Amino acid sequence: MTTTHAQRWHPYCGEAPGPAHWLAHWNWDWVLLGSLAVLLLFGFKASRATMRSQLAATACMVILFVTPLCALGSALFLARSIHHLALALVLAPLLVGAVGARAFPNVSLGLATVVQTAILWAWHVPASYAQAMSNDLVFWAMQVSITLSAAAWWVSVRRATALGAAAGLLAQMVQMGVLGALLVFAGRALYAPHWLTTTLWGLTALEDQQVAGLVMWVGGGGAYLLLAMAMLWRALGADARPLPASRPA
């Protein structure tokens, strides 16, 4: 792994920063900022029902793509994994609230789960990830596909019964746990763009990958588990409600 090898990577969020300067690495891409400004304008003009979701979605995108968190993802696979979890667990449901469920196809929860899982896993194939970290168009294809597939999945969850939604959430917990476990126990660093960018942060590339895997396994899987438990609680609570008393004849 030579310096020349490291210089092959030109991430959209900029070169990998060190801990001393990463807070100064903001993303001033005028196309992105202009797009966010338009979204913000539409947010203020939206009805009250959607305004909060639109403004929250815009704020989430600013945090993920404009603040130094974006550049941190060039240095640490851990930061990029947190970024992907935020796309699926935070931005995607906010997007559904902002544009409405009708904007997404009406597909079964099973199909939506398979599609989202396939897309997430495809972008964690080392070759695909490397392409996304060296080509802006591929990077945005990754961001958009993860977000939209997750948004369509959330719409399917909302349309499902409580038990069906809980099953879908548990399926996501399992796939997230398996992906995280594979990263933890891989035994070698899989992602070339981070082979030389983690040492300034006090981590080897393998340690960075292992911590990222734990975050996906415990953090991501745990979030889906808690939501599944909430759904099951709601379903059991609905079943346990007493029937309304019949009126006397």
From TrEMBL:
One of its GO terms (cellular component) is plasma membrane. Keywords: Cell membrane, Membrane, Transmembrane, Transmembrane helix. It is a multi-pass membrane protein. Coiled coil: none annotated. Pfam families: Caa3_CtaG (PF09678). Its main location: membrane. This is Cytochrome c oxidase assembly protein. The keyword Membrane applies. The chain crosses the membrane at residues 26-44, 56-76, 82-100, 107-125, 137-157, 169-191, 211-233. It is found in: Cell membrane.
